[in-house]
Amino acid sequence: MLDFRIFFISILFNLANARVDYSQYVNPLIGSEGPIPGYAFGGGDIFVGGAVPFGVVKVGIDTWEDNITIATLNGGYTPKGKVTAISMMHESGTGGFPKYGIIPQMPLTTIKSPVNLLDNQTYWQTRVGDDIAKVGYFKTQLENGVTIELSGARHSGIMQYSFPGGEKYVLVDVSHYLPSATGGYSNQYYIGGEIHLQEDGTYTGYGTYGGGWNEGAPMTVYFCGDFDTTPDQMQTFRGRNTDPIPRYHTFSNGGIPQAILGNMSEYAGPLNDRVGALFSWTNSITSQIKSRVGISFISSDKACGFKNSEIPSWNLNDTVAAAVQEWNQDVFSKIQVDTSSFVNQTNLVLLYSSLYFMHLMPSDRTGENPLWDNREPYFDDFYTLWDIFRNTISLYHLIQPDYYTGMIRSLIDTYFYEGFMPDGRSGNYNGLVQGGSNADNVLADAYVKGLREGINWTRGYEAMLKDAEVVPYNTFSYDDPTSSVKEGRGALADWLELGYISADRSSRSISRTVEYALNDFAVSQVARGEAPADVQKYLNRSAGWQLIWGHDVSSVNFTGFLAPRFADGSFNITGYNPALCGGCEWSDISYEGTPFEYSFTVPHDVQTLTQFMGGESEFERRLDYIFVPNTSQQDLGANGAGIDTIMNIGNEPDFATPYLYNYINKQWKSVQQSRQLANQFFHNATYGVPGNSDAGALNSWLIWQMLGIYPIVTQTTYLIGSPWFSDLNMTVNGNSTLRITATVSGNGNGTMNGGDNGGGFGQEDFYVQSVRINGENWGRNWFVHKDVIINGGSIEFLLGSEPKVWESGGEVPPSPGHVVL
Ligand SMILES: *[C@@H]1O[C@H](CO)[C@@H](O)[C@H](O)[C@H]1NC(C)=O
Ligand SMILES: *[C@@H]1O[C@H](CO)[C@@H](O)[C@H](O)[C@H]1NC(C)=O
Ligand SMILES: *[C@@H]1O[C@H](CO)[C@@H](O)[C@H](O)[C@H]1NC(C)=O
Ligand SMILES: *[C@@H]1O[C@H](CO)[C@@H](O)[C@H](O)[C@H]1NC(C)=O
Ligand SMILES: *[C@@H]1O[C@H](CO)[C@@H](O)[C@H](O)[C@H]1NC(C)=O
Ligand SMILES: *[C@@H]1O[C@H](CO)[C@@H](O)[C@H](O)[C@H]1NC(C)=O
Ligand SMILES: *[C@@H]1O[C@H](CO)[C@@H](O)[C@H](O)[C@H]1NC(C)=O
Ligand SMILES: *[C@@H]1O[C@H](CO)[C@@H](O)[C@H](O)[C@H]1NC(C)=O
Ligand SMILES: *[C@@H]1O[C@H](CO)[C@@H](O)[C@H](O)[C@H]1NC(C)=O
Ligand SMILES: *[C@@H]1O[C@H](CO)[C@@H](O)[C@H](O)[C@H]1NC(C)=O
Ligand SMILES: *[C@@H]1O[C@H](CO)[C@@H](O)[C@H](O)[C@H]1NC(C)=O
Ligand SMILES: *[C@@H]1O[C@H](CO)[C@@H](O)[C@H](O)[C@H]1NC(C)=O
Fold first, then answer.
1. What is the pLDDT of residues 304-335, one digit of tens each?
2. Of the ligands numbered here, which is closest to the C-alpha atom of 346?
């Protein structure tokens, strides 16, 4: 009886939650453009189209940008690029080279010469007018007069083509994928496929594709499509593959051949031919053709099943409405703020759009794992944990505990069946590893915060030990032939022998030393529960970063930096400038950040770090310095986003850095600096995020900023910031509520509902004056998970316009990995 009542109440609660249509605040185009108008280059690389939270299908347009040197096609969408197809699978926010853009359709109004079905350049289309993107819905118009509308369900999508009259075709080119003009070794490639037609226009088959940024093994995706109006004619086609794929049969003697038309079935055959089909409605009077396509990694029967069950209606609006409902209920309603007109509407857009983008990846492929057969949840498109381990996963933990438990189980299961947990994983394949084995951090973060149910932690700890102790085989990647970039810790041999990564034997020696240190701290955190005898060993190893601290290295008036050290123990500091990294690439001393930045990234032992930098005042002076304009010496390239400070919010390593003032009880400076970054770089605009959104990592950083708290990964600690809304209820741990409120102290500069900004308070009223947690006066600038997350709780902020050291009596945040070597 009691159980039933709780169930009933929770249903009512969910219904109430879902009643507000938060999806109206989402702008799905934030991040779709970079600094050069019309180009995606340097922007968020986001996916734009129809999708559900963590959906397998992300249906949207694939495009080609005319300027090859800066073409960026990663999410498929570009602001002005030519449309080559509508396809079912995409990544969102990734840099590097494209992955997916597969299982396509393309509406055509003619197939007369010069159109060649095998040559996308003969039929690709520029767009006219402005694209429209909403949650679960996308619309664009092609130059040939066709209007495309689409929506997505979990494993399927629906397209609606409004033709201008006259001939109507839909082309299905199984060999289509998102290309890269400059990818070379990292290009995707098509290996083969089949397509079979049925009399009513239903088509099934599969395509096999490999490569992409993660250097993925071939994967096979089955499909099943149909049309609301039976085609008047349909034909398959095939043709020799001319894409230059190493070690595959391709035909390179004089351009792209003409398609050879076939009848009802087509196989790529031993020469890996391209295959496809063309559907026509030449005589049909209807001007609108709709199509549904399902995909599966298991079989075309399953793909048909998904299509039929997930999209039972031919009314596009029904699929849109279902997607909106799911987003509202499962995602947006987890963070409820006042949406009335006196609340700054831009902030609502930033909040709900950020929630949207952080739920596009990874993909929940439970039941769709072609590699091994068991009942464990299966997630793919961790692209990558390097991006999302720093705070995205901690937000999943709070608002998506079920999905998050599934992700952890999937990581552990991948270890069990494939030997290593992934750092990046896409297309059912581990890769690439940019630094450490950061699944360790993800597991530790979940573990210390008490996530247990359904997770085999014995095996989880085993997986972490594998990362910590076993050198993965070298994949001889073009990116870095010195060690594995597939999984595990490529430079582990150095780490085990020397306790640090040497600059002469290994690439990325500085960033990988720092990351391996945190990975070993993560191991020690889980060892506390799973293998207490191991704790000290891994704690000691987590201090390895101290071994490459160059105590005498100076740069712009600061002394003491991480520095390159050789295997023989000597430092290589002649001519060393920690503010430079070469290109911050695979072969450089540090990855996507300078040693100056990485010298702040030791979250487990800020205490030692502060000492090494010369004590609290020097630590503070150095922090102040990295926010000073024009201090960056490194050319940040495509990810630059106009950033001219050493602090680079466009790349993940610096995510926690603006909050480090909390560690010297100067919380007001954390608030000032982090809020300044948010205001400067995050906007409700197409160029609204500073560079690749990285699977939503940049977006989740902004959400924490707006919540007024920031998690320290692998620890139970949350640092206190300053919230952007006056009242916010967050559903945490499944069914508890964390309420975060803010009132403004009575200084005449803003009242609760009177201001024209923020959640009803003035632009300047963001400095914390005092904090109460669960009704208690809170004397320190941090709290721990159990304080307000497990059973919910409240955080009440009193804000004002004056900076205040309100936490002076309190202990600073802990350094649980404090080790004196
Ligand atoms: C391509 O983009 C680069 C970088 O913005 C620019 O220098 C070049 O002029 C562009 N080329 C064309 C043909 O637009
Ligand atoms: C167009 O098709 C050719 C031939 O298959 C392929 O090499 C190229 O990458 C495709 N381009 C786009 C933009 O899809
Ligand atoms: C082509 O398909 C049609 C059915 O659409 C069938 O009647 C015909 O025999 C097929 N032709 C060949 C050569 O297979
Ligand atoms: C779909 O929704 C749009 C916008 O709400 C509406 O204008 C249109 O009439 C609807 N179409 C159908 C077929 O219900
Ligand atoms: C938060 O929850 C409290 C308690 O249920 C409620 O009074 C308040 O209106 C809620 N605030 C928002 C913004 O939903
Ligand atoms: C956010 O940007 C979109 C697109 O420019 C615009 O339509 C919308 O009005 C903006 N929202 C707010 C609250 O400014
Ligand atoms: C948990 O993992 C351990 C170690 O791999 C294994 O021995 C055990 O059988 C697993 N337990 C369950 C319930 O699967
Ligand atoms: C170093 O400090 C001196 C004295 O405080 C100052 O004049 C100089 O500008 C500083 N140099 C840099 C590069 O910040
Ligand atoms: C030592 O450092 C210098 C300057 O930073 C660099 O040019 C050189 O390649 C380094 N030597 C080795 C062996 O890494
Ligand atoms: C809340 O969720 C937890 C875990 O799912 C469950 O044990 C508990 O009974 C739930 N409480 C209520 C009030 O629904
Ligand atoms: C409001 O804030 C400004 C600057 O933040 C300050 O100069 C002014 O004195 C404040 N006004 C009142 C009435 O406190
Ligand atoms: C709303 O907040 C944004 C920052 O997110 C700020 O730029 C804008 O000025 C605010 N709008 C108003 C009307 O205060």
1. 999 999 999 999 999 999 999 999 999 999 99
2. 6
